[in-house]
Design brief:
With 335 residues, the chain is an alpha+beta fold. The protein has helices spanning 2-21, 28-66, 77-127, 132-164, 176-194, 210-227, 254-257, 278-291; strands at residues 172-175, 197-201, 205-208, 231-237, 240-245, 266-268, 271-273, 295-299, 324-329. The chain has eight helices and nine strands. It has a five-stranded mixed β-sheet with strand order 2-4-5-9-8. A two-stranded antiparallel sheet has the order 1-3. Strands 6-7 form a two-stranded antiparallel ribbon. α6 (210-227) packs antiparallel against α8 (278-291). This is histidine kinase.
């Protein structure tokens, strides 16, 4: 309506000026009749032109309301660009909704497992006549399940905070080797439970927020322990902190998987894995590295070509580096 009014005024006002300019030579009745006729004609022109010009936008509005955008060859370039922007927005919203639905399904599963286990343990502890050693064992299992729940809730809280706000850090000179050694001591029971070789190499210092960076290293190390076949290695290098393992690697790009709502099951090297909170761990690690002025990098070399001859050694070969490598890139790492 406003567009039609603008066209009407643009057409009517110049004619009105001409009419009043010629007023002395025209009778008043003819002047009034001509003014009315010009007004009616300008109104029709405004209505018709506004309908023609706004038809592509009206059609686009209907398509957006229905959620289905189809191109039209008679649309102007501006409307085609607007349709493409709406299509991209709808696609991203659909992808985001799918990811969040998958995440919620996995989250419910991850919460349900320790809760069910805790319920069974509590029932056994309160209803069965158990000797003292078994009661202590059940208590230890209940503590372990509670720790799993708390870790999941903490990751959820971290992911929500890191997604919506910048990570606040307070860097200070830190011994990266000591930080990595502390992480290894924390996760050593998990490595022993899976029979994995967990080792540390390298030395270095850097200005970092030690508690925040330790959280990123723990996330990457726990992911490595989940998927490794036989060994996990933590390294302090001039680039930062590297967490390597001999697992199958990521089932997609790091940019796709290091998202706060990526947790749907994935197929890696022909084997089905339940991602669980792995997507949260990668996302948190990436945001922490970015807060330190660095980033999170992933590398995995291609498998060797079986047609090529293998290397020949005149002395015992050096250990082969573990293929799956995540690097928390940090600036200003010094020996």
């Amino acid at each position: 309506m406003q567009f039609a009014l603008i066209i009407f005024l643009l057409a009517f006002l110049p004619n009105l000026v001409l009419v009043f300019a010629a007023a002395p030579s025209l009778p008043r009745a003819a002047l009034a009749g001509w003014t009315v006729l010009v007004g009616v004609l300008c109104s029709l022109v405004g209505y018709v032109l506004s309908g023609v010009l706004l038809r592509p936008l009206s059609r686009l509005q209907e398509q957006v309301e229905k959620g289905h955008l189809s191109p039209h060859t008679d649309d102007p370039a501006e409307v085609r660009a607007l349709r493409a922007a709406f299509a991209d927005l709808l696609a991203r919203l659909g992808t985001e909704q799918t990811r969040r639905n998958a995440f919620m399904a996995t989250l419910v599963h991850d919460l349900k497992t320790p809760l069910v286990a805790t319920g069974h343990l509590t029932r056994a502890l309160t209803t069965l006549p158990l000797p003292e050693p078994e009661r202590r064992e059940i208590g230890a299992q209940m503590q372990a399940e509670t720790a799993r729940l708390l870790a999941l809730v903490q990751q959820m809280a971290d992911a929500h905070r890191f997604e919506r706000a910048d990570v606040s850090i307070q860097p200070s000179p830190t011994d990266l080797r000591a930080l990595v050694d502390d992480v290894v001591r924390r996760v050593q029971p998990q490595a022993q439970a899976r029979g994995l070789d967990l080792r540390v190499e390298g030395h270095g210092h850097a200005p970092v927020d030690a508690p925040v960076l330790e959280r990123a290293v723990v996330n990457l190390t726990e992911n490595a322990l989940r998927y490794a076949a036989s060994a996990v290695e933590l390294q302090v290098t001039p680039q930062g902190v590297v967490v390597a393992d001999d697992g199958p690697g990521l089932g997609g790009s790091l940019a796709q998987l290091a998202q706060p709502f990526t947790s749907q099951p994935t197929t890696i090297a022909g084997q089905q894995y339940t991602a669980g909170t792995a997507g949260l761990g990668l996302f948190i690690a990436r945001r922490i590295a970015e807060a330190h002025g660095g980033g999170l990098c992933y590398s995995r070399p291609p498998p060797p070509d079986p047609a090529l001859p293998g290397p020949s050694f005149t002395s015992p070969p050096e250990p082969v580096p573990l293929p799956t490598r995540f690097t928390l890139v940090l600036p200003e790492v010094h020996p």
